[in-house]
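Our consortium's second objective concerns turning raw sequence data into structural hypotheses that experimental partners can test. To show how far this objective has progressed, the report includes one record in full. It was chosen at random from the queue rather than selected for favorable results. The single chain below, 146 residues long, was entered without modification.
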Amino acid sequence: MKILLLHNRYRQYGGEDTVFDNETRLLEKNGYTVDKILFSNKPPRNILLYLLQPFSMIFSISSFIKLFKHINSFKPDILHIHNIFYTASPSVLWCAYILRVPVVITIHNFRLLCPGALFLKSNETCELCRYKAFPFPGIRYRCFKN
């Protein structure tokens, strides 16, 4: 079985990165053909790309193209996603759908439902964004990076 692992690394190495690296080694050790595609949250050097970054968090054309090319060359049986926030973006899900590659996602936090990832606001439980199609309360209360 050919498995493509996708991960969006944060600026500092953490628990999600450890799980991703350990899983990669475990799958390879057990005879699976594994390839990785990595994204990074390093800020862009180009001012225009920096200004467009909030929009690319929703759909990143460059991430879509990068995964599209990778899938076409590796031809995986399955895509296992660990983190799409924020450089990879939901565009990678659309790409896999178009190319008919089954997807498994490991959810490491609540980022898909809460911009702050923890359902907290001012150290209190907060679920204002939980049932929203778009997290306007999270924007209003500056839950992600203030």
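The partners drew two points from this record. Helices lie at 15-29, 47-56, 61-74, 91-98, 136-140. The CA atoms of residues 30 and 119 lie 37 Å apart. Both points have been shared with the crystallography group to help prioritize constructs.
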